Amino acid sequence: MASFYLHVPSTLRKFSLPASSNGATSPSQAGGPVIMELPLDKIRRPLMRTRENDPQKVKELMESIREIGLQVPIDVLEVDGVYYGFSGCHRYEAHQRLGLPAIRCKVRRGTKETLRHHLR
Ligand code: ADP
């Protein structure tokens, strides 16, 4: 059986894809979530100090991500151009510990009210 590989020049690798089929290309537009790479330091994690990760899980994820890459993006909320992460804590820490500069995210747009709801 023939295999197909997509060779993309590194200069063209920064792109985002709609995570739903409604044609939205940015979480800033009305529409569904989009998949995009975000620098780790661009994602605020307001609950990071109050929740502790399981070190064994993080270790296993590091090994797996090193080997096969991140298979499921973390969920991120965008409010007024600021990105917030409330889940995917083990994947985020695994990326930090691996020294990876960016992480694949499923970004959906929310309002300040959505944000307040997450912080409750
Ligand atoms: P997190 O706090 O990041 O959600 P969990 O241990 O609760 O950590 O879940 C790990 C998640 O990471 C699972 O949903 C799993 O499908 C996902 N995942 C993504 N990429 C990988 C990978 N390379 N190896 C293992 N799990 C992965």
Give an overview of the whole structure:
- This protein has 120 residues and is an alpha/beta fold.
- The chain has a domain at 37-119: Conserved hypothetical protein from pyrococcus furiosus pfu- 392566-001, ParB domain.
- It is 27% helix and 23% strand.
- The protein has three helices and six strands.
- It has helices at residues 55-68, 89-98, 112-119, and strands at 17-18, 34-39, 43-44, 74-79, 82-85, 102-109.
- The chain has a six-stranded mixed beta sheet.
- The longest helix has 14 residues, at 55-68.
- The chain is globular, with a radius of gyration of 16 Å.
- 19% of the residues are buried.
- It binds adenosine-5'-diphosphate (ADP).
- Residues 57, 61, 64-65, 68, 70-72, 87-91 line the site of adenosine-5'-diphosphate.
Record the SSE blueprint.
Elements lengths: L16 E2 L15 E6 L3 E2 L10 H14 L5 E6 L2 E4 L3 H10 L3 E8 L2 H8 L1
Parallel strand pairs: 3-5, 4-6
Antiparallel strand pairs: 1-2, 2-6, 4-5
The chain binds adenosine-5'-diphosphate.
The site of adenosine-5'-diphosphate (ADP) has 13 residues, from helix 1 and helix 2.
**How many β strands by DSSP?**
6
Gross geometry: globular
How are the strands of the largest sheet arranged?
1-2-6-4-5-3
Radius of gyration from the CA trace?
A: 16 Å
**Helix-strand pattern:** EEEHEEHEH
**CATH architecture heading of the domain at 37-119:** Alpha-Beta Complex
Please, what is the average pLDDT? 84
Instruction: Give the termini separation.
Output: 53 Å
Name of the CATH class of the domain at 37-119: Alpha Beta
Measured by DSSP, the beta-strand proportion falls in 15-25%
Cofactors, ions, other ligands: adenosine-5'-diphosphate
Structural class category: alpha/beta
Count of alpha/pi helices = 3
CATH topology of the domain at 37-119: Conserved hypothetical protein from pyrococcus furiosus pfu- 392566-001, ParB domain
Give the biggest sheet. Answer: 6 strands, mixed
